[in-house]
Amino acid sequence: EPEVTQTPSHQVTQMGQEVILRCVPISNHLYFYWYRQILGQKVEFLVSFYNNEISEKSEIFDDQFSVERPDGSNFTLKIRSTKLEDSAMYFCASRGGGGRNIQYFGAGTRLSVL
Amino acid sequence: DAKTTQPTSMDCAEGRAANLPCNHSTISGNEYVYWYRQIHSQGPQYIIHGLKNNETNEMASLIITEDRKSSTLILPHATLRDTAVYYCIVRGTQASYNTDKLIFGTGTRLQVFP
Fold this sequence. Notes:
The structure holds two protein chains of two kinds.
Chain A: E1 5-7, E2 10-13, E3 19-24, E4 31-37, E5 43-50, E6 53-57, E7 65-68, E8 75-79, E9 88-95, E10 104-105, E11 109-113
Chain B: E1 9-13, E2 18-23, E3 32-38, E4 45-50, E5 55-56, E6 61-64, E7 70-75, E8 84-91, E9 108-113
Parallel strand pairs in B: 1-9
Antiparallel strand pairs in B: 2-7, 3-4, 3-8, 5-6, 6-7, 8-9
């Protein structure tokens, strides 16, 4: 069964460093998303991406964040200068077109900012 | 904010049916009810969704009341592996792709015991 793949599973970084979280969405999917979940809190929407541009972003997704689909398979989330409060699980999701409108999530990347 | 209300937690004996309720009294005519679950800190997993008719798949059944103001997710024979947080989410159709984010609440923590 096709699945969304995220790497790395755990990323440790120093405050102020740049990190890139990587995702391989399900093949043939057209819509891509990033969510995050701070430990013990809700899953929060960050950004949606379609047709090589951002469709929607939340207030969390400020200038420190960016997304990119550098080739036909990868979808990345970059945090330019990490802060302690960026420590969280980051989930990538994708969905196809059509009427079912179901987002499939990856297993997540745990980002620890020290 | 989430448009749904769910109990904070529930218990269920292994092998029994787990019935998870959700209130969505402000649901509008074109909004679907989606159910996801999250096991430990893994990525949310899609379970089922519906508009107004009852739905069944290999994982669960979804019963939506006639007025659509509430629904129940049924896991017919709960196993220990069904222990998870279950999220009931109301969202519109995919016609507006730029507003198809998932808004997660706190969900129901289902504990299946032996």
